[in-house]
Amino acid sequence: MNSNAEKYSQLIKARAKSFGFQSCGISKADFLEEDARPLEEWLKNNFHGEMKYMENHFDKRLDPRLLVEGSKSVISLSYNYFPEEKISTLDNFKISKYAYAEDYHEVIKDILREMVAGLQEDIGAFGFRVFVDSAPVLERSWARKSGIGWVGKNANLITKQNGSFYFLAEIICDLELIPDHETTDHCGTCRKCIDACPTNAIVSEKLIDGSKCISYATIELKNDIPDYFKDKMDDWMFGCDVCQDVCPWNRFSAPTHQKKFSPNQALKNFKKGEWKELTQELFSEIFRKSPVKRTKFAGLKRNIEFLERSSDKLNF
User: Fold this and answer.
1) What's the chief localization of this chain (predicted)?
2) Which entry of 30, 63, 133, 174 is annotated as an active-site residue?
């Protein structure tokens, strides 16, 4: 082990904290042996639905050394996004909390790049790539291995101190660092997330049928929403937070200090009536810097119309 490994590891963790990251843990860049079979089975069961990109780069998902040449360490980080203010659901469609504000991909990537630039001034040049929910990286697996948290029954990463309302990011680099140890699982016999899921997408502990998930139906799915989801969407027009909202560990969630994750003012003023009249122009204006742009105007309009039809049926 490099004599600087301990010093560099401590420096990286201290720097991550100073840049606003909630947690930082380190793993050795190696083959994810215990994740290979579950990923293969998940794909074989077609739990990824129409997310065909999940079938690509199978080997790279499991081995970061194939993704970043010469990599020796995976630095996992978490960044809190829990909002200070929740958008009212009264006479309103629902939107997942992570999408209240600016696109986290860009916000966190910018923070990471600045952080790494500073580290290179202190350590010297090193090879790296930064990832924020992008590229074939099994981020929860690396965060679990690095001790940031455990994978809950809803397949989200959970920590005792902060719950699960945070983004995950990685720096895969060629620095030799001191790896951390996994933490223990603290879900116990609780099954609130399983029981609360409106579409029964949690088929067993830690196993999600993505094709039944409301987030999948409202974001990833490009075709028409299947009849399976009728009367089960609970007014979610983009994403779904149910399995996180009911998790007892999220009572410890504290508001983020990141101003760029403050709720979009326009979203706070909208009601169902305004959403029904949404135009392409208004969509582009409101969601220009938002994760919601992923679903595009046509996708969001489809979601709203599907909710409308379900509502009409319920009121019949």
Assistant:
1) cytoplasm
2) 133
Binding residue per annotation — 133?
A: yes
Q: What is the pLDDT of residues 155-199, one digit of tens each?
A: 999 999 999 999 999 999 999 999 999 999 999 999 999 999 999
168 assigned ligand-binding residue = yes
Which residues touch 129 (CB under 8 Å, ≥6 apart)? 67, 68, 135, 171, 172, 173
190 labelled binding-site residue: yes
Cα-based torsion angle of the residue sequence 151, 152, 158, 163 in order, rounded to the nearest 10 degrees: 170
Q: Is 157 annotated in some ligand binding site?
A: yes
30 annotated ligand binder: no
**Global pTM?**
0.94
Contact 154, 202 (CB under 8 A): yes
SS (H, E, C) the chain: CCCCHHHHHHHHHHHHHHCCCCEEEEEECCCCHHHHHHHHHHHHCCCCCCCHHHHCCHHHHHCHHHHCCCCCEEEEEEEECCCCCCCCCCCCCEECHHHCCCCHHHHHHHHHHHHHHHHHHHHCCCCEEEECCCCCCCHHHHHHHCCCCEECCCCCEEECCCECCEEEEEEEECCCCCCCCCCCCCCCCCCHHHHHCCCCCEEECCEECHHHCHHHHHHHCCCCCCHHHCCCCCCEEECCCHHHHCCHHHHHCCCCCCHHHCCCHHHHHCCHHHHHCCCHHHHHHHCCCCHHHHHHHHHHHHHHHHHHHHHHHHCC
* Span 58-70, pLDDT tens digits: 999 999 999 999 9
